[in-house]
């Protein structure tokens, strides 16, 4: 993969990548900032070497020759990272994007001759069978049901790596102003979509106090990162906010909504810059176990995830995972090796 070709988001494959991200419904500033964060992770000093260190003492004959990446309708950086990781193993990559995302696959393929965009319909069972059969390793991003169905199609000699749906949340304790600014960045990044976007903020301060302070930070930043929800998302927000007002209260800025509830139990929201602000009583995040992908914490927080696969990070870094982040608690390269 030629990262240089993707690094320039104003021309060539990089511009194609940015255009494809915008076609997914993200504004140009949101897409540009999100893609830049991912590209910066790849160019960080020593980042690639740290990932490649996983292969120390591994027989190269175990490296896959061809990896099929099946990308769901998730963030473009998730699909991009999966392809780039496979290329670090020297494998050819066939990229099957979600329906309607052929532009994303074509953009990634334009940056590397060893990546092929395979944009067949999800209902074309024969095309899927051919794609699955040709690969040594299949990497899939999607729902748990989709992953289970794909795994059942593979032969015993093939390797399967599945990344299912996860959620992320925040714990605040005496946050500093710059930490609330970082949290606002986390909420607005990719418009609140993706497994790394916080859905809930737990606070040990009064929820109204926390929500008002956070709302001020969101208002200060959202002018730089415009957001217009789809009709479907707008309807989901309307319903969620109506229910939220019945069981608590709702605070809104121009593009964001905070739903305040006195019940600390985790509740999954519709995304799209809508987040719950809940009281911290009894470490409620611990019941999520391995389903909690990332827990963003203020420096004064002593919150600890219940599962070792959960990433704990500073605020402002939730949607900026380092390159050697063990996705779902697993190494990046070792799971793709041939059986």
Structural description of this entry:
The chain has 339 residues and is of the alpha/beta class. The protein has 2 domains: 3-49 and 62-165, Aldehyde Dehydrogenase, Chain A, domain 1; 167-314, Aldehyde Dehydrogenase, Chain A, domain 2 (3-Layer(aba) Sandwich), CATH 3.40.309.10. It has 11 helices and 12 strands. The strands form 2 sheets. It has a 7-stranded mixed beta sheet with strand order 8-9-10-7-6-11-12, sandwiched between helices. It has a 5-stranded parallel beta sheet with strand order 3-2-1-4-5, sandwiched between helices. Strand 2 (92-96), helix 6 (102-110) and strand 3 (115-117) form a beta-alpha-beta unit.
Characteristic key phrases:
339 residues; alpha/beta; Aldehyde Dehydrogenase, Chain A, domain 1; Aldehyde Dehydrogenase, Chain A, domain 2; 2 domains; 36% helix; globular
Describe the secondary structure blueprint for this structure.
Blueprint: H1 3-7, H2 12-23, H3 28-43, H4 47-52, E1 66-70, H5 76-88, E2 92-96, H6 102-110, E3 115-117, H7 125-134, E4 137-141, H8 144-151, E5 159-163, E6 167-172, H9 177-188, E7 198-203, H10 207-221, H11 231-247, E8 249-252, E9 257-260, E10 274-279, E11 292-297, E12 311-314
């Amino acid at each position: 993969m030629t990262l240089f070709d993707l690094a320039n988001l104003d021309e060539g494959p990089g511009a194609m990548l940015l255009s494809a991200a915008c076609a997914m419904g993200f504004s140009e500033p949101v897409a540009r900032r999100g893609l830049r964060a991912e590209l910066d992770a790849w160019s960080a000093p020593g980042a690639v070497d740290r990932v490649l260190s996983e292969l120390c003492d591994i027989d190269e004959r175990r490296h896959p020759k061809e990896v099929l990446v099946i990308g769901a309708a998730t963030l473009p950086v998730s699909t991009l990272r999966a392809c780039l990781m496979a290329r670090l193993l020297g494998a050819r990559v066939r990229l099957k994007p979600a329906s309607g995302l052929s532009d994303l696959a074509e953009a990634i393929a334009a940056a590397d001759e060893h990546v092929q965009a395979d944009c067949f319909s999800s209902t074309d069972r024969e095309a899927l069978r051919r794609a699955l059969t040709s690969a040594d390793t299949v990497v899939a991003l999607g729902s748990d049901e989709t992953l289970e169905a794909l795994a059942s199609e593979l032969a015993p000699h093939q390797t399967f790596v599945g990344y299912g749906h996860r959620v992320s949340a925040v714990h605040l304790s005496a946050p500093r102003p710059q930490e609330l600014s970082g949290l606002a960045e986390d909420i607005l990044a990719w418009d609140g979509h993706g497994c790394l976007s916080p859905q809930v903020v737990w606070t040990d301060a009064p929820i109204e106090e926390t929500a008002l302070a956070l709302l001020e930070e969101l208002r200060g930043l959202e002018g730089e990162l415009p957001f217009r929800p789809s009709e479907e998302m707008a309807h989901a927000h309307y319903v969620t906010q109506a229910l939220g007002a019945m069981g608590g209260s709702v605070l809104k800025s121009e593009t964001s909504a905070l739903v305040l509830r006195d019940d600390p139990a985790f509740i999954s929201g519709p995304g799209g810059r809508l987040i719950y602000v809940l009281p911290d009583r009894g470490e409620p995040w611990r019941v999520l176990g391995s389903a909690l992908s990332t827990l963003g914490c203020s420096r004064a927080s002593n919150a600890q995830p219940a599962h070792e696969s959960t990433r704990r990070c500073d605020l402002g870094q939730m949607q900026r995972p380092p390159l050697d982040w063990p996705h779902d608690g697993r190494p990046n390269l070792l799971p793709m090796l041939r059986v």
